[in-house]
Amino acid sequence: MTPHSIFRQIILFIAICLILFIFNIVTPYVLNAYLCMIVIYCGINIILGTSLNIINGLTGQFSMGHAGFMAVGAYASAACSYYYLSPLLNSLSTSSFITLLVQQFFLVIALIVGGGAAALFGYLVGLPSLKLRGDYLGIVTLGFGEIIRVTILNMDSLGGARGFTGIPAWSNFFWIYFFVVAVVMTSFRLMRSYHGRALLSIREDEIAAESIGINITGHKVRAFVFSSFFAGIAGGLFAHFIGYLNPSSFTFIKSFEAIIIVVLGGMGSISGSIIAAIITTILPEALRPLQEITKLDFRMVIYPLLLLTLMLTRPQGLFGNKEISFSFLKRKKSK
Predict the structure, then answer these.
(1) Contact 194, 214 (CB under 8 A)
(2) b/e 208-231 (16+ beta carbons within 10 angstroms → b)
(3) Contact status, residue 53 vs residue 190, Cβ threshold 8 Å
(4) CB 238 within 8 A of CB 74
(5) Would you list the domain boundaries of the chain?
(6) Going by C-beta distance under 8 Å and a sequence separation of 6 or more, which residues neighbour residue 21?
(7) What pTM was computed for the model?
(8) CA-CA distances (angstroms) from residue 205 to 73, 210, 224, 294?
(9) Tens digit of pLDDT per residue, the chain (335 long)?
């Protein structure tokens, strides 16, 4: 990498941070609290869907317990900030500006702790189970997700069935979409790297990939760890935004929502996961007035119908395995 390209990336990073900072200030004045919440949930679901796409789309495996990794990240980061970081912050006798900076630094630490805990569980689950394929892997990961939920349900230190309250609400628009950009760009880099090409070859034909010297189990486990880490980040952002966690937020339904995002957007398409996450987040809220009139929750009716219609009309998803291209913005070279 040349110094010029490094300088361009630094300028791009600063520009993105500046734009997100401006949006973080302006958004509460432009949108009401309800619409701001929907925008925040869109960002969290983008991270969750993009992370699952690494396993289900890029590697061609079938994980059904992604909510378990999100739960691990959410509770680990919440416990870190509640029991350690928040008391430490309250003990500091500094100016409000310094306190705010320390708070943001502590949030990043809590998110890293949550992502690291989820990655560790991803490694522990992935190492023995990724030798399995297809439905067997789905059953194992589904069981893991339920084990995590039931374990948290019986841990009084994490609130148990009554929920984990008092989590500091440090997360905001800036941090959520900062990590959206980070996760999406990392996923694009991963897809175009040697490791990503190896994962694509495993998805297409495991036997052929193994015949050319690719360590199938090792690459699958690394993909599982990456995916789990990002899911843990999504859980940590979710926890520090609403300030409350309950095991019922991480049931099989949450894993099913992540699977819908990947399938609807297209297996292996990061752009598709982004668009599908926005659609699946906004659609239930757009139908909420109808729910209030009929007194019925149409979300569990719409999701299966959405998948059924998609499988009949476009089995490859909205984008298939393609990405949104901005090549039309580039000037054509003169002949």
Answers:
(1) no
(2) ebeeeebebeebbbbbbbbbbbbb
(3) no
(4) yes
(5) 12-252
(6) 174
(7) 0.92
(8) 32, 9, 18, 48
(9) 577 777 887 898 889 999 999 999 999 889 899 999 999 999 999 999 999 999 988 888 888 889 999 999 999 999 999 999 999 998 887 778 888 899 999 999 999 999 999 999 999 888 887 777 767 888 888 888 889 999 999 998 898 889 999 999 999 999 999 999 999 999 998 888 888 889 888 888 888 888 888 888 888 889 999 999 999 999 999 999 999 999 999 988 899 889 989 988 888 899 999 999 998 898 888 877 777 777 777 666 776 787 788 778 888 888 877 787 655 444 444 44
What distance, in Å, lies between the first and last C-alpha atoms of the chain? 29
The C-alpha atoms of residue 200 and residue 137 are separated, in whole angstroms, by 18
Handedness of CA 133, 139, 144, 145 (dihedral sign): positive
Phi/psi at 261 (5° precision)? -60, -45
